[in-house]
Amino acid sequence: MDALEPARGADVGKGIAASLLANVSSLADDMLLYIAERIPEVGGDAELRGLTLGSCSSNLEAVLSMFRHGIDVAAAEAPVTALEHARAMASRGHSVDVMLRFYRLGHEYFTEMLSESLTDWIDDPAVALRTFIDLERFGFRYIDRISSLVAAEYIAELDRRQNQARAERDDVVRALLAGERVDLARAERVLSHRLTGRQIGFVCWVDDRGVDLEGFARQVGRYLGAGHSLVVADGPLAVWGWASITGDARTSLAGMATESPVHIAVGSPHQGAAGFRTSHLEALRTRRVVELSGRAAPSITEFSDVALVDAISRDLDAARAFVAAQLGDLARDDTKARDERATLLAVLDAQGSLTTAARTLGIHKNTVLQRVRRAEERRGRPATVHVAELHAALLVCDVLGASVLPESSPR
Questions:
Q1: Which of 56, 114, 232, 365 is in Cβ range 3.0-4.6 Å of 358 for a Cys bridge?
Q2: Are 213 and 238 in contact (CB under 8 A)?
Q3: How much of the chain exceeds pLDDT 90, in percent?
Q4: Are 187 and 195 in contact (CB under 8 A)?
Q5: Which 8-state DSSP code applies to residue 302?
Q6: d(CA 228, CA 371)
Q7: Which Pfam families match (predicted)?
Q8: Residue 202 belongs to what domain range?
């Protein structure tokens, strides 16, 4: 090839581009068929098929016109139909890889069409090769740029739809938690969550970032017996969750890993939309008790285990006064008082059996008896006086610790 041949190739390429422009409609039809045979998602969706045809036609016209007139690829903008095609792919839930495959296959079609046709238009093999290289290189650069633009539009559309869905979901959750009347069918559709069964609300939270809380919450839901859980973020360190349970299946989190860094507070099962709110409030109150207790280690706490403590500690000053009135000097934050309170609580839990209490605590029966006597001395009256109130005060101290001891400052 002499020095003039590259220029001759470029001129010939512009002429071929002009010829192809006159036949864009037919080329677009052929390209659509080529793509549809290789991407099943196109076949049964008339709207997507129409947008694909429009995108093929628009992109072919753009790339051929730019090549013909020597316009730099950097000036290319995605055609309107190509952007709408990207939005349609996002709305239908197709992955971005599937969407970009349309462009890879379109480029493949264009390459094959050129390689099969150029020798019919150009007799000189050297000029044909030069023309093919120029057209192919320009086509690749065009597709590379347009692919980036439509991918950005796809992601933007996905974000818009996810934000819209999230806002709609949050609005329904707010209405349910506020006790407002809602259209249950619409609410279930928006939340992808059944509201007619028993509802268990739970809260998961961590002390530091770095945990996939939403994934963890879904695991909690599975342990509670729900195949799919509703999970809503409550800031960066906490999530709210709901599990919808059918029938009378028993729920348990006993199998969950105890070494997890996540705190879990679980409400009791309650029926229907009202139960959605009630169980959630119980979970929040359980979290409050856990945080008030000052327990640093993550734990799994169910509302049924702390319901009495929650009720008594709603007014923390009143709870401290109640503890002080029932325990007297036994309400001190020191090791001996704590041991005596724990022993007396074990005896009351065992309905007065010193043997059972000793077995529970892992100490000798005589030690139990000695501690009970010292506890009664500190209290200033026998354990048989106001037994229910004494039991409640000891339970509150056992759960909340220093938070309810009279000489302690509020946490």
A1: 365
A2: yes
A3: 73
A4: yes
A5: E
A6: 50
A7: GGDEF_2, HTH_30, RsbRD_N
A8: 196-309
